[in-house]
């Protein structure tokens, strides 16, 4: 149930429902949630990564508590859109998350961390405060991009993207 196609993902969720955004780093997984109507994403929390089995227990608890129906996992593509070693690691995580038996959308997250970092610098947050928040804010940024794509009406063929 892994896809990179938003339309396929939406079709797997005919009744919509709450989604979770995941920003998977090497040390942490940032978590975000959105409302059942897919209007807005909010940062939630961070899971400190250990072994996959322990991470999965925390993720299952989060999914149950928040009544999550689908996952949006940030995919860190290279700037040219190709896979990198980090991308392969995230794809492996996605395959491991299939045990959850829920729809999973891989979402291009090339600019998420940089965008979140710039916003926090503009807010004059200290380096320590930025480090504490970046993963869950990046997860919200990823999730918001995905729900915007899921809820935006399709453009007619040949129409310029607004």
Entry keywords:
162 residues, alpha/beta, Nucleotidyltransferase, domain 5, 6-stranded mixed sheet, 5 helices, 6 strands, 43% helix, globular
Write structural notes for this entry.
The chain has helices at residues 6-11, 52-66, 85-96, 112-122, 127-151, and strands spanning 2-3, 18-24, 28-34, 41-48, 68-75, 104-108. With 162 residues, the protein is α/β, with parallel strands linked by helices. Strands 1-6-5-2-3-4 form a six-stranded mixed sheet, sandwiched between helices. Strand 5 (68-75), helix 3 and strand 6 form a beta-alpha-beta unit. Helix 4 crosses helix 5. It is globular, with a radius of gyration of 15 Å. The two termini are 30 Å apart. 31% of the residues are buried. The model has no long low-confidence stretch (mean pLDDT 86).
Secondary-structure blueprint:
Blueprint (H helix, E strand, L loop, with lengths): L1 E2 L2 H6 L6 E7 L3 E7 L6 E8 L3 H15 L1 E8 L9 H12 L7 E5 L3 H11 L4 H25 L11
Parallel strand pairs: 1-6, 2-5, 5-6
Antiparallel strand pairs: 2-3, 3-4
Helix pairs in contact: 4-5
Please state roughly what percent of the residues sit in beta strands, choosing from under 5%, 5-15%, 15-25%, 25-35%, 35-45% or over 45%: 15-25%
Please give the CATH class.
Alpha Beta
Helices and strands, in N-to-C order?
EHEEEHEHEHH
How would you classify the quaternary structure? Answer: single chain
């Amino acid at each position: 149930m892994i896809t990179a196609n938003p339309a396929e993902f939406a079709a797997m969720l005919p009744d919509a429902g709450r989604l979770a955004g995941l920003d998977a780093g090497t040390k942490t997984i940032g978590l975000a949630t959105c409302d059942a109507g897919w209007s807005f994403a909010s940062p939630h929390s961070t899971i400190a990564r250990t072994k996959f089995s322990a991470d999965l227990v925390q993720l299952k608890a989060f999914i149950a508590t928040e009544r999550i129906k689908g996952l949006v996992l940030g995919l860190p593509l290279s700037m040219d859109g190709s896979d990198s070693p980090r991308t392969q690691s995230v794809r492996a995580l996605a395959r491991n998350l299939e045990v959850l038996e829920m729809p999973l959308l891989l979402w291009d997250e090339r600019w998420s961390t940089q965008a979140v970092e710039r916003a926090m610098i503009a807010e004059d947050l200290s380096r320590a405060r930025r480090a504490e928040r970046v993963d869950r804010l990046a997860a919200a940024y990823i999730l918001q991009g995905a729900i915007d794509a899921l809820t935006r009406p399709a453009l007619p063929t040949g129409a310029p993207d607004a």
